[in-house]
Amino acid sequence: MRWSPLIDATDPERFGGKAVSLARALGAGLPVPPGLALADSFVAAIAQGHRAATAELAQLPLPCTAELAVRSSAVGEDSASASFAGQHRSELGVLPGEPLREAVRAVWRSGFREGALGYRARLGLDPSPRMGVVIQPLINAGVAGVMFTRNPITGANERVIEAAWGLGDCVVQGRVVPDLYRLSLDGTVIGLTQGAKRTEARPLPTVGLAAPPVPDERGSAPTLNHDELQALHNLALQCGQVWKCDHDIEWAFAQDGTLYLLQHRPITTRSRQRGQDVTQP
After folding, report:
1. 129: closest CA among 147, 107, 154?
2. What is the DSSP string of 66-109?
3. Which domain holds residue 254?
4. Are 221 and 157 within one domain?
């Protein structure tokens, strides 16, 4: 099988950990954007310029004809011991056709970058990357970020939510200082540290992201209201019914207020900003 609807991508040795996690979430009714999963052998053939593979890519039933999110899903990625957070490339705001083909190639090449190969070596993983790819509609978010269901720094049994305006790329890549919310396990807000949200990530017309400035009054305003925090709390509860682990969740509220689950992995990082990857005890 060279590709699959995302909901049916249940083989981690073919489609990679990220695709399998999203497939499980879709099957459980969680709010994941639908999409496609490309098998690692298919991605390699596209990246190496095989004509049959590139022709097949052009004929895939894409989840939309507008902007796409093209994400890595390497074999072994987003496991309990190896998150690869920040190591592999995602391409956002990708259009069908040649931009999609180039995005798949860029994601595949990112598995061979020095940092990604060094990460594999430190964990004793297979030195030869096998890169699957997930293709979904791009959620042009009003606010987005990450949520940990256990404090990734202290280990405290609380939810930690980092949020900023626009797409979550600014938060994941550490390009802004996000708002930081702490919630108790019953969803009560127990802390808020407002960040300096001076820019927001927005898709460019063809591929990639822009980072326009945020007006001062908006940059200093809280990103999430009570209802949105409760929606994230409920999402954490739903994830707890599907996975028996502490969760590292990437999420986004679309412009119409709909909440989406973009990625799920077990907590393995103590600090995204420091780029450290340590298994959570």
Report:
1. 107
2. S-EEEEEEETTTT-SS---TTTS-EEEEEPTTHHHHHHHHHHHH
3. 141-266
4. yes
Q: Give the total number of structural domains in the chain.
A: 2
9, 130: one domain: yes
pLDDT tens-digit profile of 180-220?
Answer: 999 999 999 999 999 988 888 888 776 677 888 888 888 88
Whole-number Å distance between alpha carbons of 201 and 176: 10
CA dist 51 → 48, 56, 197 (Å): 9, 9, 45
- What secondary structure letter does DSSP report for 127? S
Tell me: do 106 and 173 sit in the same domain. no
Whether the pLDDT of residue 73 is over 50: the answer is yes
Q: How far apart are CA 120 and CA 115, in angstroms?
A: 9
Token representation of residue 83: 């998150």
Chain mean pLDDT for the chain: 87
Kindly state the tokens that stand for 58.
Answer: 């052009």
Taking only the tens place, the pLDDT of each residue in 24-53 is 999 999 999 999 999 999 999 999 999 999
Q: Angle formed by the axes of helices 51-58 and 98-110, to 10°?
A: 120
CA distance linking residue 52 with residue 249, whole number of Å: 36
CATH code for the domain in which residue 166 is found: 3.30.470.20
CA atoms of 102 and 44, how far apart (whole Å)? 12
DSSP string, 220-242: TS-S--HHHHHHHHHHHHHHHHH
Q: Which of 86-90, 187-191, 217-221, 274-278 has the highest mean pLDDT?
A: 187-191
Cα gap 210→76, rounded to integer Å: 31
